[in-house]
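Entry 12.
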Amino acid sequence: MSFPLDDLLTVESVVALIVAVVAGVSRGFTGFGSSLIMTPILAVMYGPAVSVVTALALEVMVSVDSVTRVAKIIPWRTMIPIWIAAWIAVPFGTWILLIADADVMRRVISLIVAFMAILLMVGWRYHGPHRLMSNLGVGVLSGTLNSSTSLGGPPLIFYMLMGPSTTAAARAGLIANVFVVSIPTVAILILNGTLDNVGLWRIVAIFPFFLVATQIGNRIFHATGEKTYRRASAWLLLIVAVGTLIVE
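Predicted 3D structure (tokens):
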């Protein structure tokens, strides 16, 4: 696999690198959000399929380090049922995608996400425990929305940040979630030939910068308080919701 230097020294590659650095800082701080930032911009330059696999591949690669760091505080009893339910719900979401108006669904869900973000901003929290049935319910909702609208992340983010978990535990769960749900998608897209030689080398070239950016974001997280973290996460959710509403 030859190194395509001329194909990588382009304006598009510089833009992709800058976007990845910004997304990496967000990912390191909040535990989520890098794909939400990278995918729309990369899609303009490289197309939707390449943008998705590029963003998710970077997520998976950096998550090997991130998950190892937070493994001890991940709320496994909460997350494992969510992941199982989410996987089971994927076919249902695919069925909805085939029969429903995807644009209408996306806009309705965006309004709901905006409402969730506002609740986070005003500091509302649920202080009861995360029970098995609620975990399964969130998993089903997340899996269904992910396969039908690609907006499966916000309900889980809301559930973790509004619940009784500490900020560190909630963030750890979100970091692990990105890792778990991204691996199969990346594998399928790569096996289907989504990336060519240039695309693979682009990921390799961007990764060191993305990794450093996530570490910077991680340092920012440890230097700030819980209130700042939750407010920043709420703003990111709100930006995603508004962006989804206005993008055709």
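Annotation: DSSP finds eleven helices and no strands in the chain. The chain has a mean pLDDT of 83.
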